[in-house]
Amino acid sequence: MPRFPAIDIVDIPGKGRGVIAREFIPQGTRIIAEKPVIKFSGCTSVGYMESVHKALSSTSKFEFFLSFPCMQGGDPILGRFKHFLPCESGDDNAHGLFATICRINHTCCSPLSGPNAIYCWREDLNREVLHALRDIAPMEEITVSYIACQIQKQDPPVYLRENFGFVCSCSGCRRSLQLRARSLTRVHNYNSFMGSFPTSVQRGQNPEKLLNVLQRNLLAICEEGYATELARGAHYGFRLCAMYGDAENAIVWETLSRDCDALIQGVDTEEYRNSQKWIRDPATFDLWKVHGLRKLAAPNPALRRYTPTLESLPKKYGYTSRNWSSLSIIAWACVGLCLAIFVWMFFTQ
Ligand SMILES: C[S@@+](CC[C@H](N)C(=O)[O-])C[C@H]1O[C@@H](n2cnc3c(N)ncnc32)[C@H](O)[C@@H]1O
Fold it and tell me: Which residues form the SET domain (predicted)?
């Protein structure tokens, strides 16, 4: 049965508390799968926050909430709201505060450095999961990026100061203003391209050109440190190839997307099962060959260097469920019964 690696919450100079690895954690390992200590639904409007404010002040969870850093000069409650993470289910804009995951500090994604882990909410598990993006050494701090590619609209040091109240000292933020502006433009261009990428490409559009622009954008965003974008971006490459009945290249694109997504979410997901199905037989994709037959292109080999192959990752994706299976309940009941008989015999002798 897979187990989670040993980690600890410790003081980190200049950052308050943070999370470190207590043992070597190989790339792809699921580090933790955690339920929120506090969870609120629809946590977006100011009015709602105020009602949560009142509710929280009267609960025993308040102390836990107050143990998080507050924005300097900020309201003690609202100044800590930023530590909540989205736990969305459908239209419900729920947010949760997690005992360990919310202690993880930030590192920016940049061409010079990046976080060593990534978290995401898994609605099916009702948990936030954290995976290692690369090998993590014992005693190394575990960090994530608070800035998702899609929301990066500002220079990161400015965004972090305004929204989290700290001055980021990562190597990306220490670059010159000019280099940071160049990065911001590339991220912006990538986001607007992906936002308008036609999910069902219209007849008459030039698919070769579209795939070419997709490749260029994906390379640019990987260079900017957001290699995890390949999960979505490579899937777009698959869609395009599948719509033109190009099975060979569709398989290579979807394999790239699957491998990247497995690194972020694990392999116990619906996305993984769908990917496996399409890789086995791209013709099972619902838009297969809708635009007829055309040979397109495989992903640029340079993209492959940004995400490991599934085979190279440790088999540590498994979710260590705390849900008791009926077999384990029977086993523990037997142990309990034996113990009871033993105690009874001991005292009746
Ligand atoms: C989600 S909490 C992380 C845990 C927090 N350090 C603690 O003591 O509980 C986010 C806060 O941690 C601090 N922080 C996170 N990353 C940081 C970094 N790279 N440099 C300095 N402070 C950081 C900031 O105060 C930020 O508002």
Answer: 5-147
pLDDT tens-digit readout, 315-343 = 755 444 344 455 667 788 888 888 988 88
**C-alpha dihedral over 3, 7, 8, 9, to 10 degrees?**
-110
| Structural domain includes residue 230 | yes
Q: How many A from CA of 120 to the centre of ligand 1?
A: 18
Q: Any idea what the Cα angle at residue 194 is, between residues 204 and 85, rounded to 5°?
A: 150
SS3 label, residue 7? strand
Q: Would you list the DSSP string of 58-85? A: TSTTHHHHHTS---TT--TTGGGGGG-E
Range of the domain at 239: 201-317
Q: Checking DSSP bridges between strand 127-132 and strand 30-34, what pairing results, if any?
A: antiparallel
Per-residue pLDDT tens over the stretch 158-207 = 999 999 999 999 999 999 999 999 999 999 999 999 998 876 677 667 99
In whole angstroms, give the CA distance from residue 55 to residue 16.
27
| Overall domain count for the chain | 1
CA of 135 to the centre of ligand 1 (A): 22
d(CA 212, CA 337): 67
Rg (CA), the chain: 24
On the 0-12 / 13-18 / 19+ scale of CB atoms within 10 A, 207 is: middle
Q: Is residue 94 part of a domain?
A: no
Tell me whether residue 113 is in a domain.
Answer: no
Query: Which mutation among 97, 166, 169 tests ligand 1's pocket best, with the greatest number of atoms within 8 A of CB?
Result: 166
Please state the rounded mean pLDDT for residues 39-46. Answer: 73
- How far is ligand 1, taken at its centre, from the CA of residue 272, in Å? 32
- Probe target for ligand 1 pocket from 11, 12, 15, 109, with the most ligand atoms within 8 Å of CB: 15
